[in-house]
Specification:
Blueprint lengths: L1 H23 L23 H11 L9 H18 L6 H14 L2 H10 L3 H9 L24 H13 L9 H21 L2
Helix pairs in contact: 2-5, 2-8, 3-4, 3-8
């Protein structure tokens, strides 16, 4: 009788431990909140994150511009995006989680306005070209920015960097590939740093 009771207890304990182990290993991937406002199903669409970044810059000077209070919340979040984007070891889930916090800090009207801009890779290529960075033309719906500033002389690169600094939008001093990868996010951080000061 004792042996049978012990066997039943062991079977129950094993079943409970197995159930606990299987549920604790499941970690859901966060959904992109920005995707509710920003679409990527149009021709040459930039990624949701890049549309959100560029759109935030383009809101400047409009009635939907980021407020000083919003900038204080958004600044550390975009700094996190900048830092996470600067490494190849970051998980997509981490960036999506930060992006969701950015979306929550923006108003629905701001998000709808950004979504209505329908920001494309071509638009972003123009943004980069204005800052002396030439990018390879990406495939539609792909906004991975890994190019450099090939075709631009070192003197022109320096002149562009100096002009950007004079305009209050300094460029990264890192390599061309890194500059291309993070330039858009650096511009957002620059804008929010100014706006957060009031």
């Amino acid at each position: 009788m004792k042996r049978q009771t012990l066997l039943i207890v062991l079977v129950i304990a094993t079943t409970v431990l197995s159930a606990c182990a299987s549920t604790s290993t499941v970690t859901p991937t966060p959904a992109s909140l920005a995707a509710a406002y920003i679409q990527t199903d149009f021709t040459d669409a930039a990624s949701v994150r890049n549309q959100l970044a560029y759109g935030t810059i383009k809101l400047e000077g409009t009635t939907n511009a980021v407020t000083s209070t919003q900038a204080q919340t958004l600044l550390p979040l975009w700094q996190a995006v900048l830092k996470l984007s600067g490494t190849s070891e970051v998980a997509t889930e981490e960036l999506t989680a930060v992006q969701n916090q950015i979306t929550e800090a923006m108003s629905p009207t701001q998000m709808q306005t950004i979504g209505a801009m329908k920001i494309s890779n071509a638009t972003l290529s123009t943004f980069y070209a204005e800052r002396g960075v030439t990018l390879p033309t990406p495939a539609p719906n792909v906004t991975k920015v890994s190019g450099g500033s090939s075709g631009v002389s070192q003197a022109d690169k320096e002149a562009t960097r100096n002009a950007a600094t004079a305009l209050g939008t300094p460029m990264s001093s890192s390599g061309a590939g890194q500059t291309a990868k993070t330039l858009l996010f650096e511009a957002v951080v620059q804008l929010l740093t100014t706006r957060a000061k009031g």
